[in-house]
Each structure stands twice: as C-alpha cells, then as structure tokens.
Design brief:
single chain; 355 residues; alpha/beta; 6-stranded mixed sheet; binds adenosine-5'-diphosphate
C-alpha cells in the first residue's frame, strides 16, 4: 500500500517536528517530581529558584495536589508504540492518518474548513486495539498521553471528580501536544438517568463543558479520542460532539496471523506454516485480545508438562507445539457475541466514517 508506506515513513520525524520543550508545570508539585527523576539535587535547587515566580497561568486556580495526581495516575509519556505493533486494521490506520496524524504534521494544509474536528470516536468490540491506536497516535505525535476511563472518573474521585475533570483539561492544555484518551466515553455522554447520583451528574456536566471548550484555540493541539464498546447507546447530541467516528473491527484472518506470529517470535515453537494457518482458521470471531489470551494459554503447555517445575532448567522446556494450541482453543472462547458484532456493523453503516 504505497499510500500507507509513505505515511509510515513520514511519521518518524513527526515527534521531532512537534516536540516543544516541556517546562515545569508549576513550582513544587509535578515539576519538582519530574526534576527529581532527572537532575542532580543541586541543579534542581537552582532550577527551582529560577522557576519560582513562574506558575503557568492556566494552572493558577488548580490545586497542586490535583496536578500531581493527574501527572502520576493519568499521564503516560514513556511509551513507544508503532503502527507495526497494531496488526491489520489498515483502513482504520489510514483514516487515523487523515483525521489526526497529517493535521498534526502539516497544520498549514488543514486550515479553515479543512480544520480537523478535535474529537475522534473509536468504536468497536472490546479488545480490538482502540487503546493501542490511542497510544500509537500519542507516541508517533510526540504527544503526552492522558488515559482515563469514565468509570474511574465517577468512582475513584467521587467527591472531587468535578474538580479533577477541570484540572485534567487544564494540565492537558499545558502539556500540549496532548492526546486525551477516554475509555467508556458512552457513559459520560449519554442521557442522565433518574437514579444517578448528584456527584456523577455534576462530573458529567463539567466534562461536557470542558469537552466543548477544549482545543477551541487556533493553536491548540489537543486531540480527544473517545472509545466505546457501546456506540448504539450514544444519542444524537453525543454523536454531534464526535463528528468523526471510526470503526475498529475484529481482526481479519491476516490480522490474527500477525498477532500470533508476533507473539510466537520470541518463543521456541514447532508450529509449521500449515498449523499456523489452522490456528488462524479456528480463531474466526476472536478479538485481538482473545488471540493474545489464546497464545499465552498455549505457551503455558510446555510448562504444565514439566513434572518438577521447581527444579526444571530453562533448556528442559520443550517448544510450544500445535497440541498446546488445540488445548488452548478448548479453554479460550471468543469474547464478542455475534449479536454484539451485528450492532457495531449496523452503527458503522449508519454513522461510521470511511477511510
Ligand atoms: P480496546 O479496543 O478494548 O481498547 P486494546 O487496544 O486495549 O483494546 O487491546 C487489548 C490487547 O489486545 C492489546 O494490548 C493487544 O495485546 C491485543 N490486541 C488487540 N487488538 C490488536 C491488534 N490489532 N494488534 C495487536 N494486538 C492487539
């Protein structure tokens, strides 16, 4: 695919082009933590002294404690995911390049009515690579990756969820370019139910306020990635907030083959090509995560067949063979039901974007 090959070669330099020096966020708090990780104590003290009057304007009304919490629990910078780590999904990868990667790489080409929407919704069954795509975008764009799940917003931070949402978006602005990945976004966007707690309701309201205000500045480089396994629960207002909706389907045969081959690469195994094909045949309907689980289950076969594991030598472990996969196939079943799959296909034909 020449189009995609070109894309792959340009993204290498993307991180470098987009990387801006990241200053400390504010005196104390997260920036101190960052310095402690990197510099000598003396240098830190000097640096801290110089930084002292600087508190980023955008964080002025945010409690330092919250900034720290966000830095430690939500922000990931150390990841190195490439497009090659994501098996199959050629169409989705192409669409992501058009919707997100190229606009970040060449903002001058995507202005005015070509300006990309700030949000992209990834929908599809669980375990199909939505989170992987989010990480890959952040990694390839040299962006800070914020990852939250809607349920953690409403459960873990009960009592201060609203403030945390505000803090999260403020930190995201300071740490641009950023990718904010929100899993289970359906539960934050959908109609409030009667029995819902007041605290949850307020978190949702604050989230929508922040979402709507996010990245509206011309120069803002914040990408919102919403992920959902239940797109059919999104109402029209929710769909309007995510005008681009991308289907992340179950892996096809070739995709499954790549996942299996990648996982077996670092193991000794005796599978012939024909046996590998047989595994692919028998995993129709498996998600990427299911295939991953299957391979891990199979990889335990050789260990299980050792009589005395405690004293076994590494060299005594036999290669993984086809029988291990046959056994694993009796243990691991596809996690996505045909009915569930059908609802994704229907949503895609009604509201999905094409590559
Ligand atoms: P979700 O769609 O639920 O966000 P994830 O991206 O978290 O799924 O995928 C879960 C795991 O399944 C990944 O960490 C990876 O091991 C495996 N996986 C799923 N899809 C793929 C894929 N297309 N290529 C490679 N691995 C995959």
């Amino acid at each position: 695919d020449p189009y995609f090959a070109g894309a792959a070669s340009t993204t290498g330099s993307l991180a470098a082009r987009l990387q801006r020096p990241r200053g400390g966020l504010r005196r104390g708090g997260a920036s101190t933590m960052a310095r402690q990780r990197t510099g000598s104590v003396q240098h830190q003290q000097q640096q801290q002294h110089q930084d002292e009057p600087e508190v980023d304007e955008r964080l002025r009304n945010i409690e330092p404690r919250m900034v720290e919490m966000i830095e430690s629990e939500i922000v990931t910078t150390a990841h190195n995911v490439t497009w090659d780590d994501i098996a199959g999904l050629g169409q989705a990868k192409r669409a992501v390049h058009m919707a997100v990667i190229y606009p970040l790489l060449r903002p001058e080409l995507f202005q005015g009515i070509r300006a990309p929407p700030k949000g992209l919704l990834l929908f599809g069954p669980p375990g199909t690579g939505k989170t992987l795509i989010g990480k890959c975008i952040a990694s390839q764009a040299g962006a800070t990756f914020f990852s939250i799940s809607a349920s953690s917003l409403t459960s873990k931070w009960i009592g201060e969820g609203e403030k945390m949402v505000r803090a999260l978006f403020a930190v995201a602005r300071v740490r641009q370019p950023t990718v904010i990945f929100i899993d289970e976004i359906d539960s934050l966007l959908t109609q409030r139910t009667d029995g819902e707690q007041e605290a949850t309701r307020r978190i949702k309201t604050e989230f929508l306020v922040q979402l709507d205000g996010c990245g509206t500045g011309e120069a803002d480089r914040i990408i919102l990635l919403g992920a959902t396994n239940r797109p059919h629960e999104l109402d029209e207002a929710a769909r309007r907030r995510f005008p681009k909706r991308l289907y992340v389907p179950l892996p096809d045969r070739a995709g499954r083959r790549t996942i299996v081959a990648n996982l077996l690469r670092k193991q000794t195994h005796s599978l012939t090509d024909a046996q590998l094909e047989a595994v692919c045949d028998r995993t129709d309907g498996f998600s990427g995560a299911d295939v991953d689980t299957l391979c891990r289950e199979a990889a335990f076969g050789p260990i299980r067949s050792i009589a005395d594991i405690a004293s076994a030598r590494v060299d005594d472990v036999r290669p993984i063979d086809f029988a291990d996969f046959e056994y694993a196939l009796t243990q691991v079943r596809p996690s996505v039901s045909p009915k569930d799959l059908e609802s994704h296909i229907r949503f895609n034909s009604l509201y999905g974007m094409s590559a």
